[in-house]
Structure formats: C-alpha cells, structure tokens
Amino acid sequence: MIEIDRLVLGLQHRIRQLLDNVSMLEKEDNGNLYAAVSLRIIELELAEIQDLLDKLNRTTNNYQQQSLQTAAEFHDMTETMAELEKFDSLQVIAKEHENKIIKRDLERCNEELNSTSPTPTLSPGPCGFGRMVNVSGPKTYSLTEYGTSYPYGAWGRDANPAPGNENKYWLVVLTSSNVYGNFIRQYNSLSTIILGIEPTDTYISSSNPTTNTIQGSNMVMYANALYYNCYDTYSVCQFNLTTQSVSTVDLPSDTGYDDKFPFRHLDTTYSYTDMDFATDESGVYVIYATTSNFGNVVISKIETSNPPVLGQTWSTSLHKATATNTFMVCGVLFATRYLDKKTEQIFYSYDTKTNIERYDLKLNITKRQTNIEFLNYDPRDHLLYVYSDAYIVTYELVFQ
C-alpha cells in the first residue's frame, strides 16, 4: 500500500471518529456550553485531521511532481522508441534489400550450377572436333606389375613418336616417398604393360632423388623425350631417351615448386604436383602457378628443341588449389575437380586462342579408385590416360 492510500484511510477514520464525538457532545448538551474537556478533545482531533490533510496535500504535490516527471520521462521514452522504431525500420529495409541481393545471387549461382552450357567448340585447324560432350569409360582399367605398391605414377604413349615406336607405352612409378622417380619403363604394347612382361628400363640417374631426377607424378612423353619437374627446382627437365641426357629450362623465379602450389581437394593433397605437363595436337605445355599471379594457373608452351625453350605464356584466373588435374585439347586447357570417391568432374576451360575461360562445364568422369594422381590427353587416339591409386586407366573423349 502506498503512502497516499494510508493517509486517506487515516483521514477517513479520524473524520468518522470526530463525527462520533460531536454526536456524543450533542447528547451531553444540557442547555449550557459544551464541557470544556470534550471541546478540547474535538480541538485536538481537528488539529490531527488538519495535520493529515497537510500531509495528504504534500504527498499529493509530490505525486503530482512525480507524475509530471514521469509524464516527461514517458514522453522522452516515447520519442526515443519512435526513433528506434524508425532506425529499426531502416535497418529492416536495408536487411531486406541485402537479403534480396543475396537471394538473387544464390538463384543466379543455382542457375549456373544447374545449367547445361555446352563446352567450348574446339577450333577447326588441325582439330575440327567440335564440342567435347562426354567422357566415356573407363576403357582400360588394370594394375601394373607393381600391384598396389606405388600409388603415385604416370603412364601413356608418346604423343609424337618416332617411326616404329607408335605402339609403345611408357610407365613411371615414384619409388621414393611417392614423390621421386629415376627411371622410365617402356613396353611394346598395351597387353605387355598390363601383363607386365618384356619391359625396357631407361635410367635418368642411378640414385633417387638427385639432380635432374623426376619430382611429382606429372610428366609427358613427346618425340622420345620425357618432360617433368626437375628435382628440387622450378625448372622443366627434358630427358632424351635416345641420348640419355637431360636439358632444362627455367620457369619464372616466383613459380611454385616443392609443394607450394600442388593440386588438391578437401581430403587429399597431391604431393609435389606444382607443375603439370600436357600434350595436345600442337606440342607440349607446362601448367604451373606463380606468386605474381596469386597462385592462379599459368600456361606456358614448351618449344621442344634441345635444349627446350619457354614459348608463349597465358595467365588464368583459376586458382590451382581448386583443381585436381589439367589437360590440353587443341589449345584449350581443361581442369578437373574432385566431386566424390566415384566422380571427378571437368569444370573449367581456358582457350589459348581466344583467352576465354569458363567455369560452368560439367563433364563427369566415373572413377573406380578414389584419387587421380596423373591425367593427360593423347592427341593420337583422343584418350585420357590416367594413373589412379596404382591403377592404369583410359577414358575416351567424345566430340560432336
């Protein structure tokens, strides 16, 4: 109970008591004046009632002041709330606008993700294939004579063989730490490489690793020479199988090597794949990344003279760490990414003739093993040669 309630109740009680006392005095009246004592009691009660009235007035004034103060505070609060509501409304409107932009961007991404945009049309010239529309296979799927001992390696055919070597196949396994190799094993046919019979070994060096031996699983054979990343350098090695000699050409000094810009996906990093090598209808390319291009892919043509020479170079926006492999077809770079254990996807292309790059390709490659450590295109048979967790595999590119 608040103070004003107590004062009002007390005042009501005193007034009732005063009325009772006056009634008693009226009954005591004998025609003379009221008894002095009774009058004195009434005077005291009137004084107490006046005191209560004064207190009640003071309390009422205080409450009026508090009411006025409260009213002012309430007014201030009302104005503040109005400002907050206005600010909040602006924020809500801003957030709604931002959400609309995000929703629009997500819808656009979803449309791109679900689009079926055709792959680039490969220029006529020496190719004339039209568009790549599918990757069929695997066509070949087999372990080598090494079984599952060496999950990192490479294999294929010479993209520009000497007469008499058209049917030969080559195989390199990384026998040291799944990173380094020092010899090339050749077979006379596909059946002999699958059966692991009648191989011929050519050694780059007797020790492994050492200067100019193979580093990483990316390499190609062209005109009886193996092209690969030289051990512990940012140089390209050209090993001539006829003369058994090594020539080199340096890449830009800010080129990543020794696992700086390897291929990878969320579950696996393909060790020492800083440099990739590719063959197509026109020759040999090296694919790498540089710090000046922010770790994005750079393509350089290798002139296959002896010693090799670095030719025309193209810089792309493809971040190398987002890809798992690359290959070239008729001057167009294609990049793959890991989708899951059963599927790899060709998702990107860069046309070196038009400088047009695309991220909306969706050509799936069906895998039998989880990872693809090596992948290259052979322009002679239009097959992709793949080394996948110790298995040698081929896929056919379908054009229309």
TrEMBL record:
Keyword Metal-binding recorded: no
Keyword terms of this UniProt record: Coiled coil, Secreted
One Gene Ontology CC term in the entry: extracellular space
Coarse class of the protein's main subcellular location: secreted
Pfam families: OLF
Olfactomedin-like domain sequence ranges: 126-400
Gene Ontology biological process: signal transduction
Key word Secreted present: yes
Compartment(s) where it occurs, according to its Swiss-Prot or TrEMBL record: Secreted
Coiled coil residues, start to end: 8-69
PANTHER family: OLFACTOMEDIN-4-LIKE, OLFACTOMEDIN-RELATED
UniProt protein name: Olfactomedin-4-like
Organism from which the protein derives: Cyprinus carpio (Common carp)
